[in-house]
Amino acid sequence: MIVLAHGAQTITENLDCSLGVEIDVRDAMGAPRLSRDPIVGDNSVGLLDWILRYPNYSMYALNIKSDGNERVIANIMNSTVGKDRWFAFNMPYPCRMSYAAWGGNVMDRYSDLEEDVSPYSTNCGIWSDRWEWNKREKNDLMISKMPSSNSTGKVRHYYVSPDLH
Measuring CA to CA, which residue among 88, 148, 139, 137 is closest to residue 115? Predict the structure, then answer.
């Protein structure tokens, strides 16, 4: 299991590299930048600059907050950390298709608010958040219906701690 440090774009020192990191990616003047909130002025750092500073985490989870930079983001991530150490999530369907076309890994969300994952999904796994898990049996059923994303036949599944919401 890989633990993801939430909101890692705010870190100022290296964390344990066995951790994964979740970062919020937005667009500012045509370039991917890191910021949880809308970017005002110059209050953000570029995705490439941040990745070059912190290139050794076990996994990079990119929470996509704006559309249009799918090719640039996929190229940055594939060339700096490699295709198997990152995924994008939380974007609209057309962007998901663009990430898949540009060699990016896409995760589907599954939560107490979103119980269905599309059978037409181009995902490489699922991530779950916001739990009222009296629906645990549905969770197991849904996971068993998903296409296998690796040679073991198991779907990768990441959890975001509910206390972060």
Answer: 139
Q: Which residues contact 15 (CB under 8 A, 6 or more apart)?
A: 5, 8, 21, 57
- Cβ contact 161:5 at 8 Å: no
List residues bridging with 28 in a β-sheet.
Answer: 31
Distance CA 82, CA 38 (A): 28
Query: What is the pLDDT averaged over residues 142-160?
Result: 56
Helical residues (DSSP H) of the chain, grouped into ranges: 47-53, 70-80, 93-101, 136-145
Convert the pLDDT of each residue in 34-85 to its tens digit: 998 888 877 789 999 999 999 999 999 999 998 889 999 999 999 999 999 9
Radius of gyration of the chain (CA): 16
Model confidence, pTM: 0.79
Cite the DSSP H helix spans in 13-149.
47-53, 70-80, 93-101, 136-145
Residue 102 has which token pair?
């540009």
Q: Which domains does the chain have, with CATH numbers?
A: 1-105 (3.20.20.190), 110-165 (no CATH)
Residue-averaged pLDDT of the chain: 77
